[in-house]
């Protein structure tokens, strides 16, 4: 059984997010490190969502809309992080939720 290139890309992105997620939640003295990993996690979440939404045929309009709605937690996380001045645990969890939702949407649900 051969895997599609899109599936392999999705797995590589998810592996990258696992590493990013670990470093995002590990306490460090430098807040800049948290902000960098937070931004990287947001970008990976957006990438997973774009792959999820654009890999479906146009007949699946409801599933495509549901895939794009997966970006809502990341938008809320950015608003929380900007309001607080730094990413807190809730905003990091919301970014994690976006990536998990996008991955499950591509791999399982849709």
Order of helices and strands: HHHHH
Question: If you compute it from the alpha carbons, what radius of gyration comes out, rounded to the nearest whole angstrom?
Answer: 15 Å
Largest sheet: none
**What is the helical fraction, as a range of percent?**
over 70%
Report the mean per-residue pLDDT as an integer.
85
User: How many alpha or pi helices?
Assistant: 5
Q: Which word captures the global form?
A: flat
- Please state roughly what percent of the residues sit in beta strands, choosing from under 5%, 5-15%, 15-25%, 25-35%, 35-45% or over 45%: under 5%
What class would the helix/strand composition place it in? Answer: mainly alpha
Could you give the count of β-strands?
A: 0
- Regarding quaternary structure, what we see is single chain
State the end-to-end distance.
21 Å
In terms of per-residue confidence, which ranges show pLDDT below 50 for 5 or more consecutive residues? none
């Amino acid at each position: 059984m051969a895997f599609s290139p899109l599936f392999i890309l999705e797995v590589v992105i998810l592996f990258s997010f696992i590493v990013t997620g670990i470093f995002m939640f590990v306490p460090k003295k430098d807040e800049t490190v948290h902000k960098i990993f937070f931004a990287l996690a947001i970008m990976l979440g957006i990438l997973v969502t774009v792959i999820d939404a654009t890999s479906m045929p146009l007949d699946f309009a409801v599933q495509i809309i549901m895939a794009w709605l997966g970006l809502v937690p990341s938008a809320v996380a950015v608003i929380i992080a900007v309001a607080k001045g730094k990413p807190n645990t809730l905003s990091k969890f919301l970014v994690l939720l976006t990536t998990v939702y996008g991955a499950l949407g591509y791999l399982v649900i849709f």
